[in-house]
From TrEMBL:
Keywords: Ligase. Belongs to the glutamine synthetase family. Residues 605-932 form the GS catalytic domain. It comes from Phaeosphaeria nodorum (strain SN15 / ATCC MYA-4574 / FGSC 10173). PANTHER family: GAMMA-GLUTAMYLPUTRESCINE SYNTHETASE, TYPE-1 GLUTAMINE SYNTHETASE 1. Residues 477-488 have a biased composition (Pro residues). InterPro entries: Amidohydro-rel, Gln_synth/guanido_kin_cat_dom, Gln_synth_cat_dom, Metal_Hydrolase. This is GS catalytic domain-containing protein. SUPFAM superfamilies: Glutamine synthetase/guanido kinase (SSF55931), Metallo-dependent hydrolases (SSF51556). One of its GO terms (molecular function) is glutamine synthetase activity. Residues 447-489 are annotated as: Disordered. It comes from the Eukaryota.
Amino acid sequence: MEPPGPPRPTIDQLRHVANHFPIIDNHAHNLILPTHAETIPFESITTEAQGRALRDTFKSLPHLRAAKQLRRLYECGEDADWEDILEQRIEWLRSNPQRLHQQCFEGVHALLVDDGLADPKKVYPFDSHDEYLQAPSKRIVRIETVAERLMERIVRDAKEDDLSKTKFLPDLWVDFTDDFEREIQEAIRDPKVAGFKTVICYRTGLDIEPDYEQAAKAVGHPFERYVKACIRKRSYRIERKPLNDYLVLRTLEILSDDLPHSDSLAKPLQLHTGLGDNDIKLSESNPAFLQQVIEAYPNVPFVLLHSAYPYTREAGYLATVYRHVYLDIGEVFPMVSRDGQEAILRQALELIPGSKLLYSSDGRWFPETFFLANIQFREVWLELLIEYIEKGDITVFQAIAMTKDILFNNSNVLYDLRYQAIFDETIQEAPKQLTYNTKPLAGSSFHLPSSPPIPPAGTTSQPVTTGPIDPRSGSPYEPPTFPPPPTAPKVYDNQVFDGFIKENPDVRFVYVQWIDYMATTQTRVVPIKEFTRMIREGDRIIVSQGDMSKPHNGKHTGFFNTTSQIYIEPDLRSLRRTHNKDPLPSATVLSYWRSESGDPSPSCPRASLETLINALQYTHATTLLVGFEIEVTFLSRSTTNPHSKDVQQPTFLPLTTLHASGAVSPEQWLKFPFLSEILIALDAMGIEIQQFHTESGPGQFKFILPPHPPLLAIDTLIQARQVIAQIAALRGYRATLHPKPFDNKGTVAHTHISLHPPDRDMEFFVGGVLAHLPAICAFSMTDAISYDRDARSGGAWVAWGTQNREVPLRRVKDGRWEIRCMDGLANVYFTLAATIGAGLLGLQSGVVEYRERDLDVGPSRLDDEGRARYGITRRMPRSVEEAMEALKVDGALREILDGELVDGYAGMKDAEQRMLGKMDEEERREWMIERY
């Protein structure tokens, strides 16, 4: 008896493959930069209509279907109209653009990007998508764009008089053709280029002259007219049939040259066919026109794009009878209705072998175009295959193989990508309770958890649910839909938590922490069993909102409702093991403040900062790195004068007394065993210190942290400060951030910020941060002692200078600046939020001429006239009251930070200052040292 063979694949396995197998998207375009997004109507994602014709798209089946799917993507109600959808989209892009992009590119392995559709200044680079993919993107080189940019460069300095010169046009033709050939040859050799594309269909139609020699002879006069238009009108668009024909044929000639064997294939040439906007002549977009050209170049693969709709059958014939012709099934998803998409696939399959079909999204401008195309193709393709299986035309095994080919294998082979599909063939049972985030959670610009490339069924963000029997097929399997999300909100990324516990199985407690308005770290110690339950069930810690409005004396200020609740939500990206001297085997994690529904609390410092980080990234395509310096003074406790029992000494004395910045005295050297404990503890926690050294004040040292994205930088700063204070406490010392613990040099907290890309740093820092610097001081220098002349760093005048340490805003180099008017009492979330908010205002203003000029001396060394020459006319605040007044009258900064948040902060600081004002100087000093 023969052993049984492997089990036959089932419809469930086909469904799993169709819904989750990775995609090589063989034709896509760049995403639009946020600064130009408003130039593209979002409703154009389902239509080629433009102008007034676009108004009617809202009543088309493709639009209505897409709107329903977008409601699910954005987690809107089923009754949300188009305006509601757009508002929710904007909120996602502001609060968590990374999550939106991750969902839109879910299941995409790699993209082949035609990056010639738009001006490079208006779109992201072709490989900017890669952080959401499993493999690097490749370029598709648009030959018309190559030619037009070459001509623009060649005739940039040409004038009308040049046209009358005898050799001008012949020489120009030689330069143009030589440069064009060189560009194409370089692209052929470039491993980042997968293929080429022509849009001749748009320009002059597909009825291309098939004979290269004839095309070369006919190009003379059209080229001359084209050059005249370039010089006279500065219009470089190539739209003259002989010239367009010549460029296509010249490209085919170059691609055909120097192939290693007679049967070798060159890099493919994609051709726009069929469907397009109203620029196209539909009657001339039929790929049947290409038959003679196809026959003339048998070693160049031709990829007929966009299903050639409505000429799918004609394209199907060509792809069937010529070994080097392929049909791309793209753009019709989501541009055509469900029935139309099904009809197109049926027509394609009438003749074409499964090995000659390629999938693409034709995604462009917006990530949602990729999302809609991918889910609609998977859905309609699966429905069609199930029908063919039930009719007995194909087996499940054949359907699975065909699906893998069209989604991945065919493109992988044709474009010689050599990618490896990462896919789990097993079908996992759906968990008893699936969680889904019903509201967009605030995102982050750092440490995005990596999602599995192709999530197994039952664990995707689009959970599998049991649906009704398909009435068309009678099959007991649920229809291949993307159902609405369940109601249980997905709060935490279990993958991040599970990975941490796997590496730290002995953790028994978690310090759940958050920073209040007074820059105090609030903590709840949670046993790991309860913390695990919180994560698994999406639970949060509930605290009274009134507790957030208490200064250190515990009295409510009334700025928050004492009967309302705040829900503390740990951000697992900040989860970190504590040092080995902690008495508890524990971890620490920083948290957001949420509402009961899970929305970011408007009063949350962390969420407020994150919103501005995302606004900067989304609106201006700009990211930040932030590096903090920790200046700390180590103190010992002493209550009596060693020489007299009758004279009371201050409670705190400096740990070391002989100090000079950067020097190491024997007294300081003796403290290195203690300092090394701090450094070793930080290193064990994964907190890197670039360097540490002595500072000028007694007992004063500096620890320099490396640059990180903003939230990660702040989390690292807070956790590092805690370690320093805790190790000091174990030795009986006090580590304080007090701005001026003694009558000598003060203690500050300089902050370095780098802008990427750096080209608009003047607008951000001088036009924005410097303009609002007095108001920012309300967050960065929060106590009366912060304004002591010796404690304050950065001088008394609103000024900036390159490598100038006597001004509050120091330019280090292009893109990198230092904020010098900040100390350790600041709420770092608020300070950085105010800085980014001011920078955003500078970018939005569009002003590029500034009153304040680059200053190379200390402003205090100049007289009024000298300062005026540099545009220096404003003083920095001289007291916390002046800083608060500057914040009060800075309407633009208040608005971008949220006025209610600013009012709550200002009210609490006022209450705190009144409380501290009742203390004498020594009592106030020691009170603050104990707490900061």
